[in-house]
């Protein structure tokens, strides 16, 4: 390696949590030469998927945004002119000063999480001190799964390392390697040790080849299957009464309630034979320790999504699988094991906005606020909002009422093209410092390149705006490095001294979290009002929800096909203009593709690769047909992130505003995303 060449250890910017993979990059002067997986990374051990490998194509990319842009002409014409940062700031600051703070909104996406927690935390600080509306964006992703788990009291997880070493039975319930590819190595280790792996999903995925059994069920029927498993466990005396008596609330009511949920009842809903449901229940309850690894997002994106995680989370409690090695719930997006993580750098912040003015993190309410003209200025930070919100038609109508929309991103996207008035060019992950954390470790992300063109970091932009808007105490740190350093204050070295950036660098940028427990709930203290597992949830009852786990059958439709969406290994949400800005990802994802069962395709005279129209009363969307038995008859599936697919989905609230905030830290504000469709050839 020449003297001008440098090798830097960092983390992949894709932000596909819970997976966070290590990278080793080589740079020369201000040019990226290579990217490869970091063999020494304690989490990924050299693994780097196609998404991470493709990120070198961000740099020197002709599609990259490099200067501030101002819209000319009408919205949607996609006509722009360059402007200076001074003029761009002046337009935004003036718009904010011409309205009230509560009429300014901040919506952030995964795109500002490419360097970890630092950017999103600073947005929270900016919003709180400025008195602006800001929302918890987990409501478009993992929150409904967490909501159901939180009602029961099982939000914390065991680690993938514990699963690899100790689990005898593993239920991959909606979990895929597309969402968490680093789980693959742990599954292989567990299987070599003799663990029995069962996949439960609505389609066959990359993880199917690692499973000993694959059970495909219709979308939204997970709660029915879970309740039937609980019925069998109780009926056959496979439950752990000692654990139940000591650590749960409402078991007598739950036991009586379960009588109705027979395997025969569930079979009619799920399509799984009654005897196979019984066998699954017996395996889970007797071939222990048994771990359930839940999907993070897609399986909960329907009207009653929270019911699935609520019912599933009762199974480890019923069998006494919580607080033991190899049991409980495994790695999941939106969850962490018990440990000391990063310091709270917002502890000194008092929110300026009063609660009565706040628009809650509730998708239907947010869309309604836009349509009612309650937001004058909107900052879209690393997001293609129209691709991620349900019922994007209603959202687009609402965005049209916002007076000024500013987009901060690396590339254009459809929301920017159609709705934005001003564009701020973003820095990429190698152009700024950051910190990422996995379930077990904290990782330093060093800057390796100077920003291209006039790109500015979000930290720089927010500091500049805070100064011009006279927002006091926004950045009480000496520098960006000092700010990143402040997150380490909760960690201590072996001598008891606080962890510093100097120390972290000396250790190669890796740090295992303090007080890390690979096994959750060993103290049998659960995050519920009773501090017990709550089969009966009084707070749910008071909020108008069922206090006991239930299954609600979806409302039918005149359209025959149930539409759902999720991730693949070759794409991540709508990153990089739906993947089309990076040649490697564009080649892997040339356009939308609908998975459809051969029987459904034959009935509609559809051939593989043929252009089709997917439609319902809300709208229509064009794609190519992919005919496969990897989905059930009556079900169609598509990769998420494509602009336009959410024209088909419902924006109906999943839970009411009364029930939205009853699980601390986990809003129930996701819209339903339900869609029944049909399709035909073009």
TrEMBL record:
Keywords: Iron, Iron-sulfur, Metal-binding. Residues 5-63 form the 4Fe-4S Mo/W bis-MGD-type domain. GO terms for molecular function: iron-sulfur cluster binding; metal ion binding; molybdopterin cofactor binding; oxidoreductase activity. Pfam families: Molybdop_Fe4S4, Molybdopterin, Molydop_binding. InterPro entries: Asp_de-COase-like_dom_sf, MoPterin_dinucl-bd_dom, Mopterin_OxRdtase, Mopterin_OxRdtase_4Fe-4S_dom, Prok_Mopterin_Oxidored. The keyword Iron-sulfur applies. SMART domains: Molybdop_Fe4S4 (SM00926). Belongs to the prokaryotic molybdopterin-containing oxidoreductase family. This is Molybdopterin containing oxidoreductase.
């Amino acid at each position: 390696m020449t003297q001008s060449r440098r090798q830097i250890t960092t983390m992949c910017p894709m932000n596909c949590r819970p997976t966070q993979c290590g990278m080793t990059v080589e740079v020369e002067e201000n040019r990226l030469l290579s990217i490869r997986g970091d063999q020494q990374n304690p989490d990924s051990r050299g693994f780097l998927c196609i998404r991470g490998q493709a990120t070198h194509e961000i740099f020197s990319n002709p599609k990259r945004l490099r200067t501030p842009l101002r819209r000319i002409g009408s919205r949607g014409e996609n006509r722009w002119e360059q402007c200076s940062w001074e003029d761009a700031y002046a337009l935004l600051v003036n718009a904010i000063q011409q309205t009230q703070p509560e009429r300014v909104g901040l919506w952030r996406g995964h795109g500002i999480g490419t360097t970890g927690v630092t950017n999103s935390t600073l947005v929270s600080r900016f919003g709180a001190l400025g008195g602006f509306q800001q929302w918890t964006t987990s409501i478009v992703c993992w929150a409904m799964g967490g909501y159901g788990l939180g009602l029961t009291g099982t939000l914390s997880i065991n680690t993938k390392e514990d699963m690899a070493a100790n689990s005898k039975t593993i239920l991959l319930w909606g979990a895929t390697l597309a969402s968490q590819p680093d789980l693959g190595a742990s599954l292989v280790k567990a299987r070599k040790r003799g663990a029995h792996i069962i996949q439960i999903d609505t389609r066959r995925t990359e993880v199917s080849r690692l499973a000993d059994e694959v059970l495909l069920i219709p979308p939204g029927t997970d709660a029915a299957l879970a309740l039937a498993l609980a019925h069998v466990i109780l009926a056959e005396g496979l439950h752990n009464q000692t654990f139940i008596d000591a650590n749960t609330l409402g078991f007598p009511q739950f036991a009586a309630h379960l009588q109705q949920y027979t395997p025969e009842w569930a079979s009619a809903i799920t399509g799984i034979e009654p005897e196979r449901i019984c066998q699954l229940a017996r395996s889970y309850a007797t071939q222990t320790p048994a771990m359930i690894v839940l999907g993070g997002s897609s399986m909960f994106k329907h009207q009653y999504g929270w019911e699935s995680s609520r019912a599933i989370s009762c199974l480890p409690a019923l069998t006494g699988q919580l607080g033991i090695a190899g049991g409980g719930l495994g790695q999941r997006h939106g969850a962490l094991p018990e440990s000391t993580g990063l310091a709270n750098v917002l502890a000194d912040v008092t929110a300026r906005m009063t609660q009565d003015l706040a628009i809650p993190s509730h998708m239907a309410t947010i869309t309604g606020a836009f349509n009612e003209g309650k937001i004058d200025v909107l900052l879209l930070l690393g997001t293609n909002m129209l691709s991620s919100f349900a019922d994007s038609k209603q959202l687009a109508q609402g965005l049209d009422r916002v007076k000024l929309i500013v987009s901060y991103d690396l590339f254009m996207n459809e929301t920017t093209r159609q709705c934005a008035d001003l564009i701020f060019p973003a820095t990429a992950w190698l152009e700024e410092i950051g910190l990422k954390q996995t379930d077990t470790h904290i990782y330093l992300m060093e800057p390796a390149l100077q920003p291209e063109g006039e790109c500015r970091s979000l930290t720089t932009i927010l500091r500049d705006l805070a100064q011009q808007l006279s927002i006091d105490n926004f950045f009480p740190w000496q520098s960006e490095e000092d700010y990143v350093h402040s997150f380490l204050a909760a960690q201590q070295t072996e001598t008891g001294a606080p962890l510093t950036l100097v120390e972290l660098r000396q250790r190669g940028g890796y740090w295992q979290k303090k007080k890390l427990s690979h096994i959750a709930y060993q103290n049998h203290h659960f995050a519920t009002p009773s501090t017990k597992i709550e089969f009966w949830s009084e707070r749910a009852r008071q909020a108008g929800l069922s206090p006991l786990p239930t299954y609600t059958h979806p409302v039918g439709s005149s359209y025959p096909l149930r539409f759902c969406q999720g991730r693949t290994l070759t794409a991540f949400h709508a990153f990089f203009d739906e993947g089309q800005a990076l040649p490697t990802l564009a080649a892997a994802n040339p356009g939308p593709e609908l998975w459809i069962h051969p029987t459904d395709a034959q009935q509609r005279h559809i051939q593989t690769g043929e252009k089709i129209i997917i439609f319902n009363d809300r709208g229509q969307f064009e794609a190519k047909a992919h005919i496969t038995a990897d989905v059930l008859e009556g079900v169609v599936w598509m990769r998420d992130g494509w602009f336009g697919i959410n024209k088909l989905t419902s924006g109906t609230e999943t839970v009411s505003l009364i029930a939205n905030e009853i699980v601390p830290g986990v809003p129930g504000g996701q819209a339903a995303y339900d869609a029944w469709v049909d399709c035909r050839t073009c």
